[in-house]
Amino acid sequence: MKIIAVHLVNDFSESSKVLKQLVKGWSKNNINAELYMGKGRKGFLSTTTQTTTNHFWYPVFKNPILKLLFIITSQFILFTKLLFTLKKSDTLYINTVLPFGAALAGKIRGCKIMYHIHDTSLTPKIFKLFLFNVVKWTANEVVYVSDFLAKQEPLKIKSNVIYNVLEKDFINQCKGIKTTQKESKIILMICSLKANKGVSEFLQLAHLNRNYTFKLVLDASQKEIDNYFKLEYLPDNLVIYPTQEDTHPFYREASIVLNLSDTRSSVETFGLTILEAMAYGLPTIVPPVGGVVELVKEGENGFLIDSKNIPLLTRSLNELLQNTALYQKMSTTAKEYSRFFCEEYFESESTRILSN
Fold first, then answer.
1. What are phi and psi of 134, to 5 degrees?
2. SS3 of 93, please?
3. Residues 130-156 pLDDT 10s
4. For labelling alongside 100, which of 108, 109, 166, 186 has CA 20 to 30 A away?
5. DSSP-derived 3-state class of residue 158
6. Domain identity same for 115 and 147
7. First to last CA, the chain
8. Pair (151, 256) in one structural domain
9. How far from 267 is each of 3, 150, 189, 261, 350, CA to CA, in Å?
10. What is the dihedral of CA 277, 282, 286, 291, to 10 degrees?
11. Cα gap 127→154, rounded to integer Å
12. Gap between the Cα atoms of 46 and 146, Å rounded
């Protein structure tokens, strides 16, 4: 068996990290794989050494019209490239629904086509409809990152759920960390620089809770951050950081980790940063819908609160940070929950699906 894995944007997102873990697992199980991905960006896949990497043209732009135009152009290039290199015996493994050019080429060549679906919040809606119709027409099998996503985007295709997991290297760095309340009260959020990820709500919480330190790590450059906040008044207890390759120092010093995604426009399908926080024994506060509720149990290892409910968020932060017994209980439970989401589970499930 030979796997041709395809990914559009190499960055520091969950989807890039998952593909890196997949490639690592395939290599460990002696499965021959080759990777195709967009050229020019640095991310988790930049350090992948277990497979041959081929690049195709895809410049990343923030402008939505240019972005859509370049996605379509890149997929025409990818389609042409794969049409003349794919063999019928190859298994085409498409990471996210975006690389539709690969699926069309694979369909023509008669390959087995598998999709790893990470997200449902794609815009514009007509483009999302087109992408999922390509999945329905071309795919033999799909893998979802959560039960929530499988129910949200049901397809009449053989489907599986493989939860995202933590790498062994990450878990090893968490060992020895005590699940106790810290003297410094730091509230952490790691997310994209988008309004629907709760950036404004995090800012409001920082304004209202001046006795705590708020740290915001954004997947964006310093220039993008400066432009985004240029008209905002930032309180002294808020520190904002650009893209970080190593997030361990932030988790080590944090007391609580937040996910404030808007439940109306950006429902989380999993939430890897929440799982990483749990591995450090950190209680979390997340939205009450989406894949994150498969990680966080209300009152056990965190709270489920809508990001628009600022008064309840503030009360919950104070309750956690002032009640040592409650914090200790949630911290211990969080660490215990995180142990299921390990590489062994991920690799065995991935290998089982490919073998079938």
1. -65, -40
2. strand
3. 999 999 999 999 999 999 999 999 999
4. 166
5. strand
6. yes
7. 12
8. no
9. 31, 13, 16, 7, 25
10. 50
11. 17
12. 26
Q: Which amino acid is at 69?
A: L
User: H or E stretch including 217?
Assistant: strand 213-218
CA neighbor of 241 nearest in space, from 225, 227, 263, 254: 225
Q: Please, which residues have CB within 8 angstroms of residue 156's CB and are 6 or more apart in sequence?
A: 136
CA–CA distance, 89 with 100 (Å, rounded to integer): 20
Q: What is the pLDDT of residues 286-326, one digit of tens each?
A: 999 999 999 999 999 999 999 999 999 999 999 999 999 99
CA proximity to 193, closest of 217, 160, 165, 166: 217
Q: Could you say which DSSP state residue 101 is in?
A: H
Q: Are residues 112 and 211 in the same domain?
A: no
Give yes or no: residues 124 and 36 share one domain. yes
Q: How many CA atoms lie within 13 A of 89 on its CB side?
A: 4
Q: Indicate whether 120 and 224 sit together in one domain.
A: no
Indicate whether 157 and 306 sit together in one domain: no
Q: Exposed/middle/buried for 336, CB within 10 Å: 0-12, 13-18, 19+?
A: middle
Torsion of CA 244, 248, 249, 250, to 10 degrees: 70
Residue 34 structure tokens = 């080759």
Contact 147, 161 (CB under 8 A): yes
Element (H, E) at 226: helix 222-228
DSSP assignment string, 17-43: HHHHHHHHHHHHTT-EEEEEEESS--S
Q: Write out the residue range of the structural domain in which residue 268 sits.
A: 169-338
Asked if residue 207 and residue 105 are part of one domain, the reply reads no
Residue 333 belongs to a domain with what CATH number?
A: 3.40.50.2000
Q: What is the pTM of this model?
A: 0.85
Residues, the chain, total?
A: 356
Tokens of residue 294, six digits: 């498969």
Which backbone phi and psi does 24 adopt, to 5 degrees? -60, -45
Q: How far is Cα 21 from Cα 355, in angstroms, rounded to an integer?
A: 18
Q: What is the DSSP letter of 85?
A: T
283: preceding bond cis by omega (within 30 degrees): no
What percent of the residues of the chain are helix, what percent strand, and what percent coil, each to the nearest 5? 45, 20, 40
Mean pLDDT of the chain: 93
Q: Based on the structure, what is the number of domains in the chain? A: 2
